[in-house]
Amino acid sequence: MKLTVLGPADFLKMPWKNGQGVTTELAVARRPGQEGFDWRISTATVAAPGPFSVFTGIDRSLAIVRGGSLTLNVEGRPDVTLTTRTPPYAFGGELAVSSTPALDVADVPIDDFNVMTRRTGWQHTLTQHRLEREALTWELPAAAGAVAFLYTAQGEVRVTSRDGQTLTVPANHALRIEGGEVCELQAASGCADVFLTALVRRR
């Protein structure tokens, strides 16, 4: 099992594809010799209503990290409002999507969490959890070449692998895991909010 802790110095900030916001890229699998990516995990800030960038052929999942609620108007679907306590929302990147934020604090933007995979080659899952007293058992993807990714939104998370490795992932840091079967997750103190992603190649 390979564990890699990533922090702000490892992340890359970039403008949105449509130029109307900023994304912080946490991890990415770029396409060799081609434009775009096979998968990407990122956060972004949303402060004002506006459209999302279009990503044809990409499956997306979106969740709220902090800062308020975000109402999405998605082509061909009913509107949906996301908060820090609603499940991640999945949709196709080629759909026309616009968002309207409701900020908890004026002039402090919403932070959201995004996972995107190229539909022809990869698939993903995204879940969010609040860790309190009890530990959470995280079953890692077993397929060859799969990647598991943990992002700590609040608090500190203690990660213990079945082979005995233990480390702590602070707030606004991430853990990339390659290989392995199971990890146990626990708030290092108080409570912690985490996002868990699994990325697997399609067969």
Could you characterize what this model shows?
- The chain has 203 residues and is mostly beta strands.
- The chain folds into two domains: 11-120, Jelly Rolls (Sandwich); 124-201, Jelly Rolls (Sandwich).
- The chain has no helices and 19 strands.
- The strands form four sheets. A six-stranded antiparallel β-sheet has the order 2-3-4-11-6-9, with no helix packed on it.
- Strand 2 (12-15) and strand 3 form a beta hairpin.
- Pfam families: HutD.
- This is Protein Ves.
What is the structure about, briefly put?
The chain has 203 residues and is mainly β. The protein is built from no helices and 19 strands.
Q: Structural class per helix/strand content? A: mainly beta
Mean pLDDT: 93
The share of residues in helices is under 10%
Query: How do the SSEs run, as a string of H and E?
Result: EEEEEEEEEEEEEEEEEEE
The number of helices is: 0
**CATH architecture type of the largest domain:** Sandwich
Radius of gyration: 17 Å
Count of spatially separate domains? 2
| CATH first level of the largest domain | Mainly Beta
Q: In CATH terms, what is the fold-level topology of the largest domain?
A: Jelly Rolls
Per CATH, the superfamily of the largest domain is: Jelly Rolls
- The largest sheet has its strands arranged as 2-3-4-11-6-9
**Terminal Cα separation, in Å?**
23 Å
Could you tell me the number of beta strands?
19
Coarse shape: globular
Poorly predicted sequence stretches spanning 5 or more consecutive residues: none
Organism: Pandoraea faecigallinarum
Pfam families: HutD
InterPro entries: RmlC-like_jellyroll, RmlC_Cupin_sf, Uncharacterised_HutD/Ves
Protein name: Protein Ves
